[in-house]
Amino acid sequence: MQKEEKYSTIHYHNYLELDQLLALQNKRSAALGENAHDETLFIIMHQVYELWFKQILTELDSVCHLFRDERVNEDNMNTVLLRLKRVSAIVNLMIEQIHVMETLTPLDFLDFRDYLFPASGFQSMQFRMVESTLGLREEDRLTYHGKSYKIVFTDAQRAQLDAIEQGGSLFELVERWLERTPFLQFAGFDFLAAYRAAVDRMIEKEQANIMNSDYLAPEMKAMRLRMLGDSNSYFKHVLSQAEHERMLAAGECRLSYRATVAALLINLYREKPILNIPFNLLMELMNIDELLTTWRYRHAQMVMRMIGNKIGTGGSSGHDYLAATAAKHKIFKDLHNISSLLIPRSELPDLPEDLNRNLGFYHSAQV
Amino acid sequence: MQKEEKYSTIHYHNYLELDQLLALQNKRSAALGENAHDETLFIIMHQVYELWFKQILTELDSVCHLFRDERVNEDNMNTVLLRLKRVSAIVNLMIEQIHVMETLTPLDFLDFRDYLFPASGFQSMQFRMVESTLGLREEDRLTYHGKSYKIVFTDAQRAQLDAIEQGGSLFELVERWLERTPFLQFAGFDFLAAYRAAVDRMIEKEQANIMNSDYLAPEMKAMRLRMLGDSNSYFKHVLSQAEHERMLAAGECRLSYRATVAALLINLYREKPILNIPFNLLMELMNIDELLTTWRYRHAQMVMRMIGNKIGTGGSSGHDYLAATAAKHKIFKDLHNISSLLIPRSELPDLPEDLNRNLGFYHSAQV
Amino acid sequence: MQKEEKYSTIHYHNYLELDQLLALQNKRSAALGENAHDETLFIIMHQVYELWFKQILTELDSVCHLFRDERVNEDNMNTVLLRLKRVSAIVNLMIEQIHVMETLTPLDFLDFRDYLFPASGFQSMQFRMVESTLGLREEDRLTYHGKSYKIVFTDAQRAQLDAIEQGGSLFELVERWLERTPFLQFAGFDFLAAYRAAVDRMIEKEQANIMNSDYLAPEMKAMRLRMLGDSNSYFKHVLSQAEHERMLAAGECRLSYRATVAALLINLYREKPILNIPFNLLMELMNIDELLTTWRYRHAQMVMRMIGNKIGTGGSSGHDYLAATAAKHKIFKDLHNISSLLIPRSELPDLPEDLNRNLGFYHSAQV
Amino acid sequence: MQKEEKYSTIHYHNYLELDQLLALQNKRSAALGENAHDETLFIIMHQVYELWFKQILTELDSVCHLFRDERVNEDNMNTVLLRLKRVSAIVNLMIEQIHVMETLTPLDFLDFRDYLFPASGFQSMQFRMVESTLGLREEDRLTYHGKSYKIVFTDAQRAQLDAIEQGGSLFELVERWLERTPFLQFAGFDFLAAYRAAVDRMIEKEQANIMNSDYLAPEMKAMRLRMLGDSNSYFKHVLSQAEHERMLAAGECRLSYRATVAALLINLYREKPILNIPFNLLMELMNIDELLTTWRYRHAQMVMRMIGNKIGTGGSSGHDYLAATAAKHKIFKDLHNISSLLIPRSELPDLPEDLNRNLGFYHSAQV
């Protein structure tokens, strides 16, 4: 298209390439002579999902690109946040779409299921790309009968997936960005030392609550104190770098020590203007993680309703496979775990005035 | 494709024709040298809508086909119901999709809006086909600056729309099906006479309620009695065929007298087994009508947020146009009006035993 | 209230007892001198849940009552279906309510969490009643630190829960109703024998598909044939009563043999008029089960976000407990498993004419 | 309650005052001897709505309080935003609740409708308080048969509503806050002058687009140029203070000139850190307005389904009344109209460096 065509004929129909788009729903059942009405729905449902996957990839790629820019600036972070919110909105819609899928009944599906063999949603390249771009690694994934999930793809596709896995996922980009947070040690204020003291005060208080309760029987008190001791151990994540390194090595967590401490600071001081968008950004990453999990989970429920415990057309165990990925394919677990580390506002140490100003707006500091 | 290919190579990727599908998102802004990130979303949102329109048309066409079959049988009516429910599920999802559209902000839209000129959602052929297939007539529609909505289409498309408008819409097919209801006069039972007596009893009671109320001031009593008189006039729809014919002629209603009475009977005796699916079917038609109205309405809200009161790219008045169609483009209004005609169960006349049996199951009548 | 008061003063405000209702939100934090803004939300959220629980119990009790009536008739079954659909609509709303709960942030919750100790959602009597009325048994439940879930209740409440558990849950009432299905053996038609033959034909076909595939490597063929063998074993549920009894004894399933076969028949011949409502009724039971599972699951996600892995105020392990009940507290699993037993319509045996008539309407059989 | 009771016996059941709460569902139909099953749902639905109204009022009151504080600071604005988002989440849930209301069918409602006479949702004091607190004035409201909406309330309630109407609604507080925006004229930068020049450039471009189009017939070009002229007139809102004052006097708009210009600036430069929360806050106010409108609209649809065009129990015209409030009871219309005034980013004037710094963070300006 040339520059001068700019304002020449453009019609909704051409712009959306509807002639081509609406010619891509070719039923196997019709081609093979036994037309099944509901196969059109089956095709369109999956094509819509693939269009949304493309949109999600478009957003995630742009977000990664913005994070890669050395000079990440505040305006960009707002753009990143809005694009991640868009991804959430799309995954949310994908979850709602399951209600449409559920109008396809098991008996109607059985009318054309044979013709699809051995195709399977397992073979969606774009969905794998979404997972890998977010940060799901080969080792985090369920295997496919003991083999890599990549065996269902062509060589070219596998190379593409490898490139994503090696190229720096959103997880790693966010980790590096967190590590650059400048406020962890600031002009004589040691965030971790202040936090450690606050945690100790809080745990003492909770112990006293349990001990002083009139309501709890002695055995319940003992049990609760034991549980409190367990919960206490969560704080070791941040209170001891050595312990954190051990957990990293053992695969019990994934986010680096410095990034974890930064995420905690952002969570605790989220009201400070300069931390507002970073906090919302971490929330949105967790949100996407949760929504994808819910989608897999609802998808598994739907497959259960559709084929029960039968094997899927692609040879996976259908429902069980999907239910297992819902539990396992989480990426930002370490951010979720930050919640365990939060303490009441009343325990939070006051910030030195100089730091406080650095977390605020220029204009407010001038007036 | 030949029979023997049946179980040869089929892969998710080929089945869904993803190479073609995912190559149809070509941004005008990119072609014209000023790439706008958000145009991809704009294209995909509309392509998804068009895919859903295709699915809705697939269902509506099959439903019309089943209604046209002279030997409409009960199994078919269940199929009709399930397909209409699917249409509802899809329109519901279309409404949810507006949340994704709302992630496109006015400022981001303005980045590429100029390039789309003069294309417009107004030019969606498939959506017009959906409306016409359901039963929206040319005269029910808003005009486009005083001209037919068809002027934005090609000759071939106009011919296609004409054919749908003349070929018997779902509205007309349902009307004929209602007119065939066999139970209106049955072995000495005159449904309308019994209903008329019940209405009279009910209105007398309501008048007494108002007169006897300790709470209402005299002027309020008078006002309410006046309103009751007005509501009374609704019953003329069914109690007087002459009045109904007058309303039909004046365009105040559209459904034939016999079909209206049948719809009322089905509403009142919905618990009878043989009327269960017919009742649910009428409900689903109203549901689709309401959902499409909600979609137009939410769409209008979204356009307001996006471009305010500016004109749309297609030259419509944007928000105002959509808001007006939300109010005007209703098809099954006459079914909604049936609600005004319902009376309490306690007023409903007992059915003669023979009729009761004919509204039940064969098996139950045998045992 | 006396009869003559019928139409005397009644006002929205009195009718809903708003003076009392709106005086029940008494914050512990305010009483204890450190008012926490968000505690009002916390109270209202839970009160709304309890109001919905009461509504669900109202519906479930009425449904059980209708099932208990010896002369269960068709009109009643429609009422049962509509009330179960209402339960689904409510649970669905309960799931949506989690979005409101999520506006309470971890830090805001920590402001008053201490004051609630040791109260806990674990102590909701009504929710336990919902679960037990549906059919969850003591032995299906997670224990509470090795003890019965009932230990948090008073003696009177425990007695009430015992009564529900012993009085015939909805699960058992449905089971008995299924067992009464009259069409399993009908005038020379043996449903199970016909089904068995159809299953054999279908499995042979699937084996052939795998063997003849050009696409699958030999090892994949072997693997799939193995999986097919496994899936084959699901059919033993119904094809062998002895096997079914063994599974019942081993706790691998719960629904009686005769009820299972009836549920299968209803699923396969759902289009027959007399089976339409029974089929929808079974679907709705599964729906409620799924929705409650989704609610527990989303609830667990929300708790994770709120307190991470900390212990709940009631001494449960919070997130883990809820996530475990989401997986375990399912009641109508056996109905879900019916999906595994479905076979394509084309394999379904034709029904003898006499049986076909008995599954239809009286009126249709007369004309 | 005394301080020392802090950790004494507290149980979920007592905390939520469930004995009282669950005793407030007293059916009129039962009291009057003709028990209607569905009246429980009717009561609970409305009680739940009233609980949510109380929560909304709690949030709005706190938000107004924060706005009234002379020293409005940035942390507070974040709190305001989160509380407004909570209001949105609640109204959204209220909309979803209509699905539960729809399970009450017209026939079931008619079973007990008579007993409710003349109570009506019209008499909800709390909902009126929500509307008035947001900023709906007596003159913006539909009248009730030519009288004030307040005539259904007691003297004490009327006084309460008067106090809210006179005490400074959220609308007025937001207006004053907008008027205080410091960046409209800044060290030699005149926002309005720069904006006026940009608008002129944009309109010239759009005119050229229309003139140069190959696609549009001459009459269509003329029509579009006319429409562009009309849309042009929207800009007068901000480009001419005199015109704005005329519109204010004529009741065509409500927001003061200075506040309107500030809202435009915030919309155009939303990416600037210091404008981020103000922008999201304006968005959220529009969101609440839209959601309340949608709720009224869906409510009207539901009433149509329930009683058709009959009069409501409270003597309003039911559906028509609700549909009219959906169209009329909007509060932040002027914020919605800002969309008409937006122009493409490429037209936006560059900000002087000094102003740019003042819109950013202190920390960024230091490094």
UniProtKB/TrEMBL annotation, chains A, B, C, D:
Enzyme class: oxidoreductase
EC code(s) of this entry: 1.13.11.11
Residues reported in the UniProt entry to bind substrate: 113, 313
One Pfam family of this chain: Trp_dioxygenase
Positions in coiled-coil regions: none
Cofactor remark from the record: Binds 1 heme group per subunit.
UniProt keywords, alphabetically: Dioxygenase, Heme, Iron, Metal-binding, Oxidoreductase, Tryptophan catabolism
Named cofactor requirement(s): heme
InterPro entries xref list: Trp/Indoleamine_2_3_dOase-like, Trp_2_3_dOase
GO annotation terms (biological process): L-tryptophan catabolic process to acetyl-CoA; L-tryptophan catabolic process to kynurenine
Family label: Belongs to the tryptophan 2,3-dioxygenase family.
Protein name: Tryptophan 2,3-dioxygenase
Organism name: Neolewinella lacunae
